[in-house]
Amino acid sequence: MVEVLVTGGAGFIGSNFVHHALDAHPDWRVTTLDKLTYAGRRENLQDLDANSRHRFVHGDIADPAVAAPLVRAAEIVVHFAAETHVDRSLLSAGEFIRTDVHGTFVLLDAAREAPRLRCFVQISTDEVYGSVPEGASRETDELRPRNPYAASKAGADRLAYSYWASYRVPVVITRASNNYGPRQYPEKIVPLFITNAIDDQPLPLYGDGLNVRDWLHVDDHCRALDLLIARGRPGETYNIGGGNAVTNLELTRRILDRLDRPASLIRPVADRPGHDRRYSLDTAKLRALGWEPRTDFETGLSATVAWYANNESWWRPIRKDSEAYRAYYARQYTRPG
Ligand code: NAD
Ligand code: DAU
Prior knowledge:
Blueprint: E1 2-7, H1 12-24, E2 28-34, E3 54-58, H2 64-72, E4 76-79, H3 86-91, H4 94-111, E5 119-125, H5 148-167, E6 171-176, E7 178-180, H6 189-198, E8 203-206, E9 212-217, H7 218-231, E10 237-240, E11 245-247, H8 248-259, E12 266-269, H9 284-287, H10 297-310, H11 312-321, H12 323-333
Parallel strand pairs: 1-2, 1-4, 2-3, 4-5, 5-6, 6-10, 7-9, 8-12
Antiparallel strand pairs: 9-11
Helix pairs in contact: 1-7, 2-4, 4-5, 6-8
Bound molecules: nicotinamide-adenine-dinucleotide and 2'deoxy-thymidine-5'-diphospho-alpha-D-glucose (DAU).
């Protein structure tokens, strides 16, 4: 069996990847290491409890006593664990530095002494390039992160590269665009706006709503990671973009249309500080390996809206019962304009 360690596997992309990996690779045994922060949901992996090829370890990547032995036993590490929400990083950045930078260091340092390790995937993000007024970012472009989350990810991205350059840890770095799909915590724009619309609550659109994001279905992301584990070159970086660039306003309209809710639910609110205007990725390097996104955006968005409509038992407890969620929401959305 191939021993695979997935960090952050109880989160959105991580849980989709764990399911994908176990389905696609009958010879993989997957260990998920996750701290179960507010964004990590044990129930995202509950259906795997009876699967002898999956093991869940509750722990912190920044704790070497827990993380190092798991890394040292692995042949493949896929490192998703991170604090991931830009708005939270703007309110308080400490946990982003602790997990995204220091936690990544702990894993990489352990990877120096992992005798069977053949691939360490560092999940970075297109946010490390900063705002891209025109054209598309290539892997060789300068990094210009502009918010604390993006800067913490850029630090981890370059730290990972340094472990390849210095110690030949077989690091492959990926920079994906905005993901959408099932099981995304309802603070990011897609699940937040879908669940608000279902509840006939206002959709808080930042600024003029004309910022552009490029949407990648999480399944296409998982397939790209699978390919890069097999064929990515150590020390190299690969962009992963969906090729579905839309403004936030257009995205919001499409969500409202699908739920048959009126545009009057759109509530313009104070802009995000330092809000990156546009992200765009050149994905030629990944496509040259044979990958292309399969999920048509219209279809993928409809399926995602349907998933939230059909899985209220997943998100309603977060929104209704979680004091922390409501406190965050009140703090974030009652800022002065
Ligand atoms: P998420 O917030 O849904 O999940 C993060 C997971 O990491 C959670 O399960 C959480 O409990 C876990 N975690 C946090 N701190 C931890 C720690 N110290 N130790 C162990 N586990 C910890 O995030 P996501 O959206 O699934 O993102 C996963 C990765 O992909 C992140 O590295 C993120 O930067 C990157 N990424 C995300 C997107 C996107 O659109 N969501 C796009 C590009 C890259
Ligand atoms: O680009 C990849 C990144 O995508 C990942 O690295 C991050 O982990 C992930 O959170 C995401 O970051 P964004 O900041 O782009 O995602 P978010 O859903 O927070 O915001 C998307 C756009 O929607 C952005 O332009 C801000 C806007 N927005 C967001 C929220 C939460 C709103 O207008 N209103 C909102 O309430």
